[in-house]
Amino acid sequence: xAERIERPSAAPRRDIVVTINGPGEISAWLYxxxxxxxxxxxxxxxxxxxxxxxxxxxxxxxxxxxxxxxxSVSSVREGLAFALAGRLPDGLDRAATxxxxxxxxEPALSYLLARRLKRPLIAYVEHPFSMRRLFxxxxxxxxxxxxxxxLPSGATVIGDLMVDAIADKCPDRATPAPQDAPVIAIYPGSxxxxxxxxxxxxxxxxxxxxxxxxxxxxxxxxxxxVALDFIxxxxxxxxxxxxxxxxxxxxxxxxxxxxxxSGGNRIAIAKHADVARLARVGLALPGTTTAELAALGIPTVxxxxxxxxxxSPLPGLASHIGRIPLIGPPIKSxxxxxxxxxxxxxxxxNRRAGRAIVPEIIEPIRAADVAKAVLGVLGKTAGDYDAExxxxxxxxxxxxxLVEMLRPFVESAEKGLVRVAAR
Length: 423
What we know:
There is one protein chain. The chain has 423 residues and is α/β, with parallel strands linked by helices. The protein has 2 domains: 3-159 and 397-421, Rossmann fold, CATH 3.40.50; 172-393, Rossmann fold. The chain has 15 helices and 17 strands. It has helices at residues 23-40, 60-65, 76-85, 107-117, 161-169, 192-212, 228-232, 272-278, 288-295, 317-321, 328-343, 348-353, 367-378, 383-393, 398-411, and strands at 3-6, 15-20, 45-50, 70-74, 100-102, 121-125, 137-140, 156-157, 183-187, 217-221, 249-253, 256-260, 266-270, 281-284, 300-305, 360-363, 418-421. The strands form 3 sheets. The chain has an 8-stranded mixed beta sheet with strand order 11-12-13-10-9-14-15-16, with helices on both faces. Strands 4-3-2-5-6-7-8 form a 7-stranded parallel beta sheet, sandwiched between helices. Residues 1-10, 317-322, 334-341 and 414-423 have low confidence and may be disordered.
C-alpha cells in the first residue's frame, strides 16, 4: 500500500489505540498485550475504544477501567460517534502518534476511526475478512479450522494470544496425578443472560457426575464480567425454561463463596486462574475458555444447548431479525441452527485441529448427556489429553511477535515521522 510521510510540528504524544468489543478479546487478547506493550514502550498510553457487539456483557467499560495499563476507555456510544460523525472522545488525541490495533468489532468502524486519527491500522484476527486490503497489516492467530477456512497467500500467522493470556494468569499449573480427587471446573460464561441458564444446568450435571464418582469436586470460575451478587441471587429455575437445572443455594463460607446443589454437593467459587490451576476437566460453553484450558493441557466438555435458537445472540443482521414480531423468532432460530451447521466444531482446540479432540454436545441436551461426557473424560488419564492439547494450541510467544510487528508503527514517532497509509 502506498504511503505518505507527515512531519509533525512538535513532538506529539504517543499512544496505541485498541478497538475491541467483547469479554473474550478483552480477557484473552488485550490482557497479555498490555504488559508486553508497556514493557516495550513505557511512555506509550494504551487507549481502548469499544465497538458494538451482540455478545457484549454490558460491563466492558467497567472492567477495562479497572485493568492495569489501560489509560482511557471510550464507550461504544463514544466510539460510534467518533467513527461515524467525528466527535472526538475525551481519551483520544488527534495529534498523538501510534497505530490503531483492531482486536474486535466491525472492521469498517476501526477503519473509519483510523482514518479520522490519520493513524496506521493493524488487525489481529482469527479469520480473513473482506476489508483486510484496507488495513496496513493483518496478523492471523492461526486458530482457524484448516478444513473450512483458507488463509490468504502469504498470510502472517503469529500464533494465539490466548496461550500467553493463560500462561500469565496460571504459571504454576501442574498436571493432576491419578490419585488426586478430580476437580470439575465449571465455566458458566461471562454474560448474565447466559449464566442464569448454564450455571444451574452445569450444576445439575455435576450432581450426576458426583453420584457416579463420589470423590469428584467442583469449582466455578467467576468471570470478571459477572458480579458475585448476580450469582448470590440467581433467578428461580422454575420459570418455564426449556433446559435442565436446579436451584442453587449460595453461602459466604470462611473459605470463600460457595454454592450448594440440590444434591447437597459443594461448588467452590473462585477466579479463573485458581480454578484452572486445579482442574482435571472443564465444563464450558464455546469460547475462549476452551482454548485457554487446552493451552494448559486441560480437556473441556463443551456444551451448547440449542433449545431456543431465537434467544441466542448471533453476529450481524441475524440478531436484529429476531426482534420482528411473530415471524422474527422462528426465522432467527432457523438462522442460528444454520450458523452452527456452517461453523463445524465449536471448541477452539477442535476447530484448530479440524477434528474432535474434546467432547462437544450441541443439540437440545440434558444434564445427563453432559455428565456422561465428563465421566468419559475422567475415564482416561490426564496425560491422554495434556500433550496433544498443548501441541494443538502451540507454544506461548504470540504477544511478543505482535509487539515486534507493531514496533515500526509505534516507534516511527521517535524519528519525528508519522506513518499514514494512503487510503
